């Protein structure tokens, strides 16, 4: 069984199509969706663990690309600029892996980099742009 964490970007034109369901039906793959959200521009982002036989996995990814889905592996590093962070907590509502969480009772927003999947959802919601990407390790597949 082959398994990988993926970040799927769905352009607005295809965001309402049942593309992901076909991975099970047509390619015998299994998925576990950690987070799915629609961004203000109407495009969708889905973070999932996808598993299956390697041959089916490749076919499934080919199918996704043919539908217009952009696929990235979790190969990028996210960091927080602590000087910019104003501790508003917005990022904790979108983080699928709880890498960003509120520590109680201090009510401090903590970033645990070792739990980060690199999905970038926090970047879109952070008002002062405190969450940053180290681009050199991002891998599109
Ligand atoms: S990129 Fe941001 S939202 Fe995604 S897992 Fe990492 S900290 Fe959480
Ligand atoms: S959304 Fe940005 S400013 Fe707000 S707590 Fe998260 S990292 Fe800090």
TrEMBL record:
PROSITE patterns: 4FE4S_FER_1, 4FE4S_FER_2. GO terms for molecular function: 4 iron, 4 sulfur cluster binding; metal ion binding. Pfam families: Fer4_21 (PF14697), NIL (PF09383). Keywords: 4Fe-4S, Electron transport, Iron, Iron-sulfur, Metal-binding, Repeat, Transport. The keyword Cell inner membrane does not apply. InterPro entries: 4Fe4S_Fe-S-bd (IPR017896), 4Fe4S_Fe_S_CS (IPR017900), ACT-like_dom_sf (IPR045865), Fe-S_Ferredoxin (IPR050572), NIL_domain (IPR018449). It comes from the Bacteria. Gene3D superfamilies: 3.30.70.20, 3.30.70.260. PANTHER family: ADENYLYLSULFATE REDUCTASE, BETA SUBUNIT, L-ASPARTATE SEMIALDEHYDE SULFURTRANSFERASE IRON-SULFUR SUBUNIT. This is 4Fe-4S dicluster domain-containing protein.
């Amino acid at each position: 069984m082959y398994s990988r964490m993926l970040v799927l970007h769905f352009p607005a034109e295809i965001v309402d199509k049942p593309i992901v369901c076909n991975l099970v039906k047509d390619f015998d793959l299994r998925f576990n969706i950690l987070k799915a959200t629609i961004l203000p521009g109407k495009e969708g982002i889905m973070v999932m663990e996808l598993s299956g036989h390697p041959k089916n996995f490749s076919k499934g990814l080919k199918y996704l690309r043919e539908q217009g889905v952009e696929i990235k592996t979790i190969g990028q590093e996210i960091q927080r600029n602590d000087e910019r962070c104003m501790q508003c907590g917005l990022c904790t509502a979108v983080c699928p892996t709880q890498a960003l969480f509120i520590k109680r009772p201090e009510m401090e927003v903590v970033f645990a980099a070792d739990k980060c999947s690199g999905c970038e959802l926090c970047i879109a919601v952070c008002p002062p742009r405190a969450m940053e990407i180290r681009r050199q390790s991002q891998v599109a597949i």
